[in-house]
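The pair is quoted verbatim below.
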Amino acid sequence: MPSPTYDPTNTMLNLNNLKKSYNKNGYAIVRNVIEPEIAKEVENHVMWLKNKHPEIRPEAFHHHLLIHDPFIHHVIEQKLLLDIVAEIIGPNIALFGAHYIAKKPFSGQPVGWHQDGSYWPLEPMKVVSVWLAGSISKRENACMRVIPGTQKKTLLKPSEMIKLDTNKYVLDLAIHPDKINDLAAVDIELNPGDISIHNPFIIHGSNPNISKYWRIGLTLRFIPTSTYVNRINWECVLLRGQKQESIKNNYAHRPLFIDGAHMQFRGYKSFL
């Protein structure tokens, strides 16, 4: 699946209808948010992490591996990305979570149907998820799937979900198949540098990757600084605007680039 030619001309046109689409359907797609060189570095970063942590499946490069990585900060500081997030949650923006879900060819794990908010200790549940494509993400290689309109459903508790084997699935919990109308599901097909954004209540998941192509996505969870993360020692990143002193979140410092400890990337010098 060769990558298409980069064309940023329709990005601002998509932004005009962003919030309308997001509110109606629970998700929206914006093309060409991240320039091709950075999207390629996202793919390179996954390979670098895979070599550094061969004991961890690439679907499980979680927040603790990424929060102090200069490259991740380089990505989340991109202006257009933050402009899009601001359309949904307002001007005071923090990163709550980062997670690579990178599915290897032929053996990439599926993600069961779920609502993101079921997992998160956020008070209130005001948050938006961004799924950034580092590779082509199509139906063929197990792109994310969403069920439009399900953001209007009640948020299920973990106790109301079924347990899954994490040797076979990315997540340990899922909504019972009897509660899902997957005939209404929409494939979120993206090119490198595109993003999808989705509501924490919308039901979504993905199939196993049995194709010969990698499917690499970086999930980023953004909150307004008025949202409290009720988890001990959890680290966020303040990205834009002001933090609220009455909300006792922990904010990580912008990391310094250390040669050998971090992947070198095009903008690494701004982290020296």
Q: What stands out?
A: Residues 38 and 75 are 8 Å apart (CA to CA). Confidence is low (pLDDT under 50) at residues 1-9. The first strand starts at residue 27 and ends at 30. The radius of gyration is 18 Å.
